[in-house]
Design brief:
Elements (H helix, E strand, L loop, with lengths): L1 H22 L4 H11 L1 H38 L3 E6 L7 E2 L5 E14 L2 E13 L5 E6 L3 E6 L5 E6 L3 E6 L5 E6 L10 E6 L5 E6 L2 E6 L4 E6 L2 E2 L2 E2 L4 E3 L5 E4 L7 E5 L5 E5 L6 E2 L5 E4 L12 E6 L4 E7 L5 E7 L5 E8 L17 E8 L11 E6 L3 E6 L5 E6 L2 E5 L3
Helix pairs in contact: 1-2
């Protein structure tokens, strides 16, 4: 009975619709009901297909997003992958040229009164086997600010914040020399830079106020340089060319890099830039971290001098203005790595201190073997709220080491 009534109801509706169509006054509400009653399965199918299409679109969008994120991550990392982390930190690291040792200042901390200063600093230098990290030797040294291995890895030199330089043998830890810089600015006595010449016979030390060359065999002072900027000697950092012919010194107030002949300290020429100079492995480029000569830019930038014609290439620019902490070339000269810090209301485009974000530390990498673009932005290896400060490459260029809250080893691209 129910089925008969339902069928009659459907027939009645169809006759009514046909009649209203003839009169030209078809009701849209009845038309909707008519379609719903006549084609219920077809409408359900359409709705199902529509829902499936939306689901497929979401799946496609999610897949494309994942591909984009993974692609960006791979591009950003530049093929670099973290290998291992040593569970202790250091803001200063050095790797021996034979690739067997890594040196870093270490604890325990100790408070000492030196003159009018009360200092609490690390009291040792640890020599670790590389790359496994086992401590093989501990050297007593307070407030170390710079480290360098001799080219044959038989010696390690350490400069402290009080103008002293220590030289040890690496095989037995025997202290050979204690050198003292006599020309110091009282407000900044720390030894900023230590570099051995490639023949291992000369040690260059850089402090605020001057640069000294020492004979390694007996600790004899060979000569001193104090490049005058506006009448004031203000050397801070230095580097030696790979052929041990040129000594590059950073300056100060009027923005100059001075190039000297290493053998006798003769001034060769000056570059219109200032900062921490570092030679490329082939000696053809000189990287400088604070530059003049570029147009104004919202990013902190540094670049490369081609020494053959004093052409300024680049610049290499950081993603955000901040404090550059350390940088260096890979042994094959293909890459330049840097650590820098942003946040805390820094200079340039960073926010004011009242609205500043927390500090972040960044480890970045440039590919520099094809310098053709106007600006070179880095690929970010890591960005974090924990310290990333020092860096060093292994002699074979396969491992990049970063210092900070922990010592991390990164596998470089093949």
């Amino acid at each position: 009975m129910a089925m008969i009534l339902l069928l009659a109801f459907k027939i009645g509706i169809r006759l009514q619709v046909r009649e209203e169509t003839t009169l030209g006054v078809r009701s849209e509400a009845l038309a909707s009901s008519d379609r719903a009653l006549i084609f219920p399965n077809f409408l359900t199918l359409i709705k199902s297909l529509f829902k499936m299409r939306r689901l497929m679109n979401l799946i496609i969008l999610a897949t494309l997003s994942l591909i984009f994120v993974l692609g960006w991550y791979g591009w950003s990392m530049g093929g670099v992958r973290e290998m291992q982390t040593w569970p202790y930190g250091s803001n200063l690291i050095a790797i021996s040229p034979n690739g067997k040792l890594l040196a870093s200042p270490d604890g325990p901390y100790q408070e000492r009164k030196i003159g009018n200063l009360n200092l609490t600093e690390k009291t040792t230098v640890k020599l670790h086997s590389f790359p496994d990290g086992e401590v093989v030797r501990t050297l007593d040294a307070f407030y170390i600010t710079s480290l360098a291995f001799s080219p044959d890895s038989s010696l390690i030199a350490a400069g402290d914040g009080l103008g002293r330089i220590f030289i040890w043998r690496t095989d037995d830890g025997q202290l050979l020399h204690t050198l003292r810089v006599t020309r110091l600015e009282p407000q900044a006595p720390r030894v900023n830079t230590l570099i051995f010449s490639k023949d291992g016979q000369t040690l260059i030390t850089g402090v605020v106020g001057g640069t000294d060359a020492w004979r390694v065999a007996d600790g004899q002072l060979l000569y001193s340089l104090s490049h005058q900027f506006n009448g004031y000697g203000y050397n801070r950092h230095c580097d030696i060319s790979p052929d041990s012919q040129i000594l590059a010194l950073s300056g100060g107030t009027d923005g100059r890099i001075a190039l000297y002949r290493l053998g006798d300290g003769t001034l060769l020429r000056e570059l219109e830039s200032d900062g921490r100079p570092k030679f490329s492995p082939n000696g053809q480029l000189l990287a400088i971290d604070i530059l003049g000569g570029y147009e104004q830019s919202p990013w902190q930038q540094f670049g490369l001098y081609r020494l053959s014609d004093d052409t300024l290439l680049g610049p290499l620019v950081l993603w955000f203005d901040g404090s550059l902490l350390d940088y260096g070339f890979s042994p094959d000269g293909r890459y330049l790595a840097a650590t820098y810090r942003t946040g805390g209301g820094g200079p340039g485009i960073m926010p004011a201190p009242d609205f500043s974000p927390p500090d972040r530390w960044h480890l970045v990498l440039w590919r520099i073997d094809n310098l053709s673009s106007k600006y070179f932005f880095p690929r970010t290896i890591q960005s974090r709220q924990k310290r990333l400060t020092a860096l060093a490459f292994s002699p074979d260029g396969k491992i990049l080491v970063s210092g900070g809250d922990a010592i991390r080893l990164w596998r470089m691209p093949d």
